[in-house]
């Protein structure tokens, strides 16, 4: 595909309000945040404090942004943030947070303060899309004055937490639709040529190039490879255009790119990426991989505070 084949806009010209409106008109609700996610959060509220930390109102469609945290934050303990659904279409991120909370989080009670946000972008979750209602990618806009309401609300939640963060793990997916839809849409929106890329087959992590934690990343890779396969580097020694710094690990400058894992100042940060479209895995296995990553991240951080 080239930029001229995307059905919205004029090649070489960034979108304006008309093109964003046309893009928006093509987005249909395919699933329900209120049916898939909110009831599971409500069920967990018997064990955790449910926080309504923001509200989205997109053309009359409203979404309450929800988090769960330990009922008694102990200032003597470290604090961990677990997030999913920054990109709403990345299903195993949302389900991985919920699955971890339901099945494994109790093990960490009294060891670490947990704050979890299962679905940062509910409008995009319902449309199975990367962007929000305004055709903005929240995960390139995590700044307090940014254009993504989802990101601004999460930053405000983090700033309300008095304890410092030891860990932030953010659960993501890479899918075939990245290459068939979302990257071409990005090029069209920005008036730039579309350069085809490659989808890595397997799980990988994104470390922070400004604060590399190689042993932490390797501990997660070692746990996840017991569940699903790790993405190999391409012939250039890269994954999605970035050099592989260790098996299954690449590194970005998180703050420079405005990524979610830049907002806590945590010592340990990572972004997970699973590939549910691989013939070598299943959606259920990808959720299990996300849960294994969260557990390994917590275990390592607690052992190396």
Automatic annotation (TrEMBL):
Residue ranges of domain Peptidase M14 in the record: 29-305
CDD domains in UniProt: M14_REP34-like
Source species, domain of life: Bacteria
Membership in a protein family: Belongs to the peptidase M14 family.
Protein name according to UniProt: M14 family metallocarboxypeptidase
Native organism: Sphingomonas natans
């Amino acid at each position: 595909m080239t930029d001229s084949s995307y059905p919205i806009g004029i090649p070489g010209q960034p979108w304006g309000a008309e093109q964003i409106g046309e893009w928006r008109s093509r987005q249909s609700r395919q699933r329900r945040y209120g049916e898939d996610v909110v009831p599971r959060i409500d069920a967990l509220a018997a064990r955790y404090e449910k926080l309504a930390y923001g509200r989205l109102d997109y053309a009359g469609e409203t979404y309450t942004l929800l988090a769960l945290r330990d009922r008694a934050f102990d200032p003597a303990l470290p604090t961990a943030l677990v997030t999913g659904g920054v990109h709403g279409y990345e299903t195993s991120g949302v389900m991985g947070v919920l699955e971890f909370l339901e099945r494994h989080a109790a093990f960490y009670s009294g060891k670490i303060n947990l704050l979890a946000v299962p679905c940062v972008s509910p409008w995009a979750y319902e449309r199975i899309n990367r962007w929000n209602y305004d055709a903005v990618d929240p995960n390139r806009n995590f700044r307090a004055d940014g254009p993504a309401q989802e990101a601004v609300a999460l930053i405000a939640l983090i700033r309300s937490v008095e304890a410092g963060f030891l860990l932030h793990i953010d659960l993501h997916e890479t899918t075939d639709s990245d290459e068939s839809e979302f990257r071409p849409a990005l090029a069209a929106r920005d008036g730039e040529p579309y350069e085809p890329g490659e989808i890595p087959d397997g799980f990988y992590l994104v470390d922070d190039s400004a604060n590399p934690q190689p042993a932490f990343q390797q501990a997660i890779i070692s746990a996840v490879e017991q569940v699903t396969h790790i993405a190999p580097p391409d012939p250039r020694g890269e994954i999605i255009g970035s050099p592989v710094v260790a098996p299954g690990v690449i590194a970005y400058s998180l703050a420079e790119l405005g990524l979610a894992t830049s907002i806590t100042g945590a010592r340990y940060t990572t972004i997970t990426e699973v590939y549910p479209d691989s013939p070598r895995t299943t959606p259920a296995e990808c959720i299990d991989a996300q849960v294994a990553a969260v557990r390994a991240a917590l275990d390592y951080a607690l052992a190396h505070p």
